């Protein structure tokens, strides 16, 4: 069993009722709301997910977009195998 912590931006769900949260694997970063240490940030930085924000939850939009651009430029994760891995 693993404990995770969730932190929310302005709205905890989107218009479809899906949970919008930052996921933390340790309590210290969750308590400090250190988004750079969230699982969400880690996945974007490593190139395994894309940065996407749903208004009004845009507090960290620029950070996530910057991390995604860096991952793409450095050809990390999915960006290594495909130039547009997250596009339809």
Question: What does this protein look like?
Answer:
The protein has 88 residues and is mainly alpha-helical. Helix content is 34%, strand content 7%. It is built from four helices and two strands; from the N terminus they run E-E-H-H-H-H. It has helices spanning 27-32, 39-45, 61-73, 78-81, and strands at residues 5-7, 22-24. It has a two-stranded antiparallel ribbon with strand order 1-2. The longest helix is centred in the C-terminal third of the chain and has 13 residues, at 61-73. It starts with a strand and ends in a 7-residue tail after the last helix.
Tell me briefly what this model is:
With 88 residues, the chain is mainly alpha-helical.
Topology:
Layout: E1 5-7, E2 22-24, H1 27-32, H2 39-45, H3 61-73, H4 78-81
Antiparallel strand pairs: 1-2
User: Approximately how much beta-strand content do the residues carry?
Assistant: 5-15%
**Largest beta-sheet details:** 2 strands, antiparallel
What order do the SSEs take from the amino end to the carboxyl end, as H and E? EEHHHH
Total number of helical segments? 4
Cα radius of gyration in angstroms: 14 Å
Distance between the termini: 35 Å
Mean pLDDT: 93
Low-confidence stretches: none
């Amino acid at each position: 069993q693993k404990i995770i912590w969730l932190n929310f931006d302005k709205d905890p769900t989107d218009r479809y009722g899906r949970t919008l949260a930052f996921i933390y694997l340790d309590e210290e970063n969750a308590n400090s709301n250190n988004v750079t240490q969230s699982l969400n940030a880690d996945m974007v930085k490593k190139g395994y997910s894309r940065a996407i924000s749903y208004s009004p939850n845009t507090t960290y939009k620029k950070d996530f977009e910057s991390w995604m651009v860096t991952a793409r430029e450095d050809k990390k994760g999915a960006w290594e195998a495909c130039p547009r891995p997250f596009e339809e």
